[in-house]
Amino acid sequence: MEIIIKKYNNSYKEELRELIIQANGELNLLNLVEGNRSTSKGSFIALQKEKMIGLITSWKSIFHPYCTYFRCIALPEYLDCLDRLLAEMEGSLSKGDYPLQISLDENSILGNYFSRLNFKIIRKTYLPSLDLSVSLQGMLPVALQQIKSLREIETRPDIITQLTKLVKRNYEETHLVNPVADLTLDKWKEMIWAEDILLDGSYVYLNEKGDGILAYSFLHKSDQQGTVELGWSGASDLSEIDILSILLEKQIYYSQLHGYRFLEGEFDTTSPYAMHMLKSKPFPREPVLITFQKEKEND
């Protein structure tokens, strides 16, 4: 039976909701398609006898503007429609919109599909949740004068500037495959001091003189009750990476002391700092996201 490809519009909203439910997708895809029009690159649907069997949507990121992100979904029996949806999406993009990028659960049936379409894996991201009450009972606090919370350094502009520059450098160096936008130091500082940051549970490790940062690790509130999330972490040099284990212990103790039961994290394989944190404690090695990227093919 003939499959028709059309540009999505919001008259298909309820049909898209039904597609997501039938394909066991995530309903946040609906928000993504219906969301910010200023960053959207368009959405396309596949129809068979007026029934929606697949969708692809793409958008740009202000923070990572040098690629085009996309998501897709299809009913299991109609996965072949993704070939046409992908071709339609690519036909609507310009050379400057490449590379294309998509992240999938490692168990997704789409993993093999993109591997054979000249997409390459650029990283894995571990998204574990550590049960603090079971795994790490009886931990003692780490009491070192060199460890300062973000709240304790708020009155030290020299240290704040140094921290901001270090965070910026480390983030850029660990995201070379998908570069970050050229942002001001004030913007980076604003991102560090985000609304959900836990100032008393986020730490820097100073040198013996107290005028230089050797490492840092941030902690954030979570939307999930009883849960906190690890944020950015890094060091001034890879030779100082072991300090991150000390900061992590401090953060775990803080979390336990304040009644949190779960510690979540996002650990990219492209970051040696994140990988060190992951291996420091018995974090589960699941779930895992696989990120694929595709460059523009030569005409």
Written overview of the protein:
The protein is an alpha+beta fold. It has two domains: 4-124 and 290-294, Aminopeptidase; 129-283, 3-Layer(aba) Sandwich (Aminopeptidase). It is built from ten helices and 14 strands. An eight-stranded mixed beta sheet has the order 1-2-3-4-5-14-6-13, sandwiched between helices. α7 crosses α8. The chain starts with a strand and ends in a 5-residue tail after the last strand.
Q: Which class of the largest domain in CATH terms? A: Alpha Beta
Q: How many helices in DSSP terms?
A: 10
Low-confidence stretches: none
Per CATH, the architecture of the largest domain is 3-Layer(aba) Sandwich
Strand content: 25-35%
The structure class reads alpha+beta
Please describe the structure with a list of short key phrases separated by commas or semicolons.
alpha+beta; Aminopeptidase; 8-stranded mixed β-sheet; 299 residues; 10 helices; 14 strands
